[in-house]
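PROTOCOL LOG
Step 1. Enter all chains and additional molecules of the complex.
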Amino acid sequence: DTGVSQDPRHKITKRGQNVTFRCDPISEHNRLYWYRQTLGQGPEFLTYFQNEAQLEKSRLLSDRFSAERPKGSFSTLEIQRTEQGDSAMYLCASSLPFRLAGRQETQYFGPGTRLLVL
Amino acid sequence: ELKVEQNPLFLSMQEGKNYTIYCNYSTTSDRLYWYRQDPGKSLESLFVLLSNGAVKQEGRLMASLDTKARLSTLHITAAVHDLSATYFCAVVISLDSNYQLIWGAGTKLIIKP
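Step 2. Run joint prediction.
Step 3. Record the structure below.
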């Protein structure tokens, strides 16, 4: 399977703990996105990488959230001092470079990591 | 601020019927996506619509875009149970050399046999 993969698929943690999620994009995709989705809502943009550079970050992303993509391949999303309001599905998506996809560029999503903060 | 509104948010229908889901957005955009999400699963791309009057069809689903009215529709023809899912539209806003997708809240579609 050469799709987007995410690990872990489920995470239960206690409030105040730190958690880290990993995303492996489709290999030829240089763009990588993180989203958060809560029940009954559409995905909410968190941050975006092009290769290793973090180019966009949502105003909604508090200082407790940090994302990296050190070698332009996989990415990690860390949440420090988790709060109950952080409980959600965290989705990763990747897409081809604009020069290859043009305006047909489509984001391909991974299966998500479901986080529950107790 | 771009807002994307879908309606209805919930739709229960019988197999064999036709229905339309609407996606309205509040500011100019030149690209709109439709995605499908099954319960507990991730999002699957269905269509990307690039221009005014664009129409795309795949099986029993047909999507259209009217950029002047800032409206996209997803039409379901002769619905079958397998189409039960939540359908999202997402609108592009351009940010310098990048872009973001702004998502609707989704339409949960249940098709009864």
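Step 4. Note key features.
The first strand of chain B starts at residue 4 and ends at 7.
DSSP finds no helices and eleven strands in chain B.
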